[in-house]
Structures are given as C-alpha cells and as structure tokens.
Design goal:
With 107 residues, the chain is mainly alpha-helical. 58% of the residues lie in helices and 9% in strands. A hairpin with a 2-residue loop joins strand 1 (6-10) and strand 2 (13-17). The protein starts with 5 loop residues before the first strand and ends in a 9-residue tail after the last helix.
C-alpha cells in the first residue's frame, strides 16, 4: 500500500500530514462527504472550513497532538490569505485521493 502522508513546511517547521480513515469520518462530520470536499477543493469552490479542517485533521493524523494542531491552525491558517493555505489542503486531499505519485522508472 502506498504511503498517503505528505510532508511539508507549515508555519514554523516541517510537519507530516495524513488523513486516516477515522479522521476522514471526523472531517465528514464537520464539512460533508469527503468526495464533495475533494470536488470543492480541486475545483476551487471550497469553504474556509474545508481548508482549515483538512489541515488540522491531517496534522493530527501525521502525529501532531490535537492541541498543537489547533494552535497551528489558529496561528497559521485562520488569519492568513487562502493562497497560502489552500495549496496544502489540496495536496493533502490529493495524496489521499490518488495515493503517492509514481516514481520515474529508470530504463
């Protein structure tokens, strides 16, 4: 099975982001069906909650404590331009939807 984690610099350090099946259920409780969230995000018709909850829950799935994840969202998502936070949420959902990118085959 491919690794569905995404690692990126976020706010103050590099973090791992992963949406586990249990966290997808929580995301769905807050924002609606995961397919609809992906559709909105991939088509740039998302809500602020789609972006912030995706990032927060993916931080938790990547090993960040829930308290620290909430602090990071408050510091680096809530009052920041969407152009800074949208790409991360899109990448997290893309990794979950499509899996890890295929590596080039040497030949």
């Amino acid at each position: 099975m491919s690794d569905l984690a995404h690692t990126a610099f976020f706010g103050d350090a590099e973090y791992t982001f992963r949406l586990t099946p249990a966290l997808i259920l929580e995301l769905e409780q807050k924002c609606g069906a995961v397919g609809a969230i992906c559709h909105r995000v991939f088509n740039r018709q998302f809500s602020q909650a789609d972006v912030s909850e995706t990032i927060r829950l993916a931080l938790i799935g990547g090993g960040t404590t829930p308290k620290r994840a909430a602090e990071l969202i408050a510091a680096y998502v809530v009052d920041r331009p969407l152009a800074e936070t949208y790409p991360l949420a899109a990448k997290v959902l893309e990794r979950r939807w499509f899996g890890a990118p295929h590596e080039a085959v040497n030949g």
